[in-house]
Design a protein that fits this description.
Shape of chain B: globular
Strand content of chain B: under 5%
Radius of gyration of chain B: 20 Å
CATH architecture of the largest domain in chain A: 2-Layer Sandwich
Oligomer: heterodimer
CATH superfamily of the largest domain in chain A: Metalloenzyme, LuxS/M16 peptidase-like
Distance between the termini of chain B: 81 Å
CATH topology of the largest domain in chain A: Cytochrome Bc1 Complex, Chain A, domain 1
Number of strands of chain A: 11
Largest interface: A-B, 7 and 8 residues
Order of helices and strands of chain A: EEEHHEEHHHHEHEEHHEEHHHHHEH
Number of helices of chain A: 15
Order of helices and strands of chain B: HHHHHH
Helix content of chain A: 40-55%
Amino acid sequence: MLSRRFTTAYNLAQTVSRDAFRVTSVKSNSAVSTVQLVLPSGARYEERDELGIGHFIRRAAELSNGQRTAFANARALGETGCSFLVTGTREHIIYSIDSFQNQDSIKNAYELLLAMTFQPLYNGWDLAAALTPMQLDLAILTHRKDIRVIELLHQAAYKDTLGQSVYAPAENFSKFGQQMALDFIQRTFNNFNLVCVNTERDLEEQLADMTSEFTDSGDKGTPPKKAVYRGGTLMNSVVGDHAYAAVAVEGASIGSKEALPLGVLQKILYREPAMKYTSPGGRLPSAIAKAVNDNFMCGNLNFNYSDSGLFGFSVVANAEDAGVVLEAAAAEMKSLCSKGASSEEVARAKASLKMDTIIKQENARSFATMVTDHAENNLPAPTLQGALEAIDKVTVEQVNETAKSLLKRKPTLAAVGNTITVPFVDDLF
Amino acid sequence: MAANKLMSAVAKLAPRAVQGGAKPTSMIPNMKIGTPWAGLKTRGELVEAGLMDESELSEQHKNVFNFSYFPEVGLMWDDLAYGRDPTVREALRRLPPDVHAARMVRISRALLLSAQRKVLPEEEWTTLESDIPYMAPYIEQVKREKEEMKEWKSKD
C-alpha cells in the first residue's frame, strides 16, 4: 500500500559539468539534505603495493588538514550541526555531510569537508590516530564472517581490481604514511562527482564554486583497469560451528540490459521476510529445507559495478550440513535457470523489487549513491516513477532468457568458517 | 712488547683532550651540523633571510654560546630542551625521524665526551651562527594548538 508521498514525481537531476568535476543535484521527499563528494578512488584503483590505502584515507579524514587541526575541525563540524561520514566502496570513496535542510549550515560544513578531502596533511605524529581505528575495524571483522565471505567472494571472482578489499590487510599497516596517501590522492581524486540532494539551486552554485578553488582543472589521468571476471574457489578455514558460503556468477553492470531481469531473478531466488517471525519467500529457502533438517540461512546476492557485477546466493549452515545445503541451493538455481520461472513468481518478484527501490530512495544518502551511479555511467537521472515503470516493463521471457545465459558462466565460490564439507565450485555445478 | 703495542694502539684510539689548535681526531664520524636533513637553516642563514629577528644574533646570545659547555661537546641550543615541559614533550614527539635521530646522536656524543672528560676540537664547536633552531616550528605549532583548545573550551 503506497502512501501518496511516494508516488509524487521527483525533479529530474540537473547535471552541470565543470572542468574537474560534475555537479549532480536531485530532490527527494526526505527532510534531510545530503552533499556528497564521490571520488573514484575505491579499492579497485589501489595498486598492489598500496592495498588498503583507501582504508587509511577514510580513517585519517578527520585528522589535521591544511586549514584546521583535528580538534578545531571536530568542534567546527559540531557547531554547524551537520553529520559527517566517510564511506569507502570498491569503486568510490565518498565524503558526505547530512544536514536538516539548513542551507547555511551546509555551506559551513562543506567548507570543512573540502579541506578534509583535498588538503589532508597525514602528519607522521597523527598516524597512530588513524591506525588505531583501522585495527578496530579489522578486529570487528573477525567476528563478521558475513562481511568476510563477501570480500572473499569478490577476491575469488576478480582477484585484482574489484577483488581488492575495502579493508586494509594487517601486514600493510606499517607501510601507510604521508607519502603513499598523498600519491594515491594525487592519482585518483580527479573527475569526481559532487552530488547534492535536497539543496537549493543557488547553494549548489556556491558549493561548486567553493570546490573549484580546491581542485585544479581536470587531469583525466589514466583510464581505469577494466575488471576481469575470473571465477574460482577460495576458502578461509576458521575454527567454529558454522560455514558461511557465497556462490556467484558474473552478473550485470550498472545500466546493462540484464540489470533489471537479474534484479527480478534475485527476488525469485530469495525474498526477505516482510514481517518479523514470518518465513522468507523465494525458491531457495524451500529447496534447502527439503534437503536439510537443521537450521540454515540463505540470501540472494546481486552486486552491480560500473563494468561488471556478481549474481548468486549466500548460505549459512552448520559445518556438517554445509555441503548438502550448498548442493541443494545450487541444484535449485540450476533448475531455475534451465527451466525458467512462472509468471506468478515473476510478478511477485517484481512487486518485491519495486518495494526495495522505494525504500532505498527514502534514505537521502543511499539515494545520492544511486544518483552517482547513474551519473558516472552516463545514464539518465533516476526518478522513482521511471524506476517503477522500468521494473514493470520487465517480461517473463526476458527473465528466463537472462537466467538461461547464467548457466554458461563460470561460477565462483567463497567460504568462511568451518569449511570441512564445503565443496569446490567445480564439483558444485 | 705485546703490552707496548697494545698501549700504543690504545693511545692512538683515545687521544687525550687538548687545548685549542688540535687536529680533528674524533672517533665518532664528524656529523656536519647542518645536514642530513634538508631545508633546515642555521640561525645565521635565517637572520639573513629575514625569517628571524636580528636580535637573535645579539651580544647576549653570543655570550651564551661563548661561555657555555654545551657547544664544546657539539650540542645545539635546542638539544638542551628536555621533555619535562609538556609543550616541549609534544614538540619532541612531532620531530621528523631524521631530525630526531640527529639530535640523539649529538646527545649521545656529548654524553660520551662528558664521561671521558673530553671536548670536541674547536673547529667543531657549535657557534651562534651555525646553531639550527629546529624545534621552533614545532613548539610554535604546539603552542598555537593549546591556545586554540583553550579558546574552544572557554566557549563551553
